[in-house]
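Components:
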Amino acid sequence: MIRAKKSLGQNFLIDKNILKKIVSIIKIKNKSILEIGPGTGNLTSYILENCPKKFFVVEKDRNLSILLKKKFEDKITIINGDILKINEKNLYNEKFIVFGNLPYNISTEILAKWILNLDDKNFWFDSLILMFQKEVADRIISKFNSSKYGRLSILTNWKLDVDKICDIKSSSFFPKPKVDSSLLLFKPKKIFHQFKNPKNLEKITRVFFNQRRKKLKKPFNILFKDNTEVLNSLKIDLNLRPHNLSQEIYYKLTKEYEKL
Ligand code: SAH
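Structure:
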């Protein structure tokens, strides 16, 4: 009998219809698969039924890793480790399709890590199919001029295209979490802006969204010291608010900032 560990964000997906739906999103046959946090292997079984060519799973919980080994034997390669510390690029020489019903407390951290480490010539994944708590998913897919729009959507859209597959009710999990979830599909963009240092994108968005209800004037002047050239070339109205600027403008602002 497995007792779910709260510290590892263990909420196991038990709704068979949802499990079936997840494996139908993308062709698994003959592909290389990486599953993050397989838990008791509910989704793992469904993925296996679809005949992947190579199948890695990364599970932090030692007891669950032992259980998975008993259940699946040599059909999957189990890595008992922390996904935040693993270099996915070294796992295999083919691009992965990644599945993850991630613990809520690390989901945005892992997404940020993957985005920052993704270079444009050498994608290590083809697609990411990831579960988030609905509120976080809403922020990731938000567009400018909406109240949820902010740093998370700007960072994600820099290198990834993202689509929402569906919402998933909390009753589809055991133990039942407090909030609903959403499933998102990400694909790497073929072309994206190059920055000297991606930390500058994080800095720019941090300063702008620090006071999201205030006008753009103050953060702009902190970063660009009244630089009218930047203002005119990007046609920014400083009376607007941070959520009124498109992602594209934030990428361009980052490039301008790197020229200062
Ligand atoms: N995918 C399974 C389990 C979801 S619960 C299902 O849907 O039923 C989240 C899983 O992630 C748990 O098994 C937990 O032990 C594992 N986990 C938590 N933190 C992790 C980390 N840093 N790296 C890898 N796995 C982790």
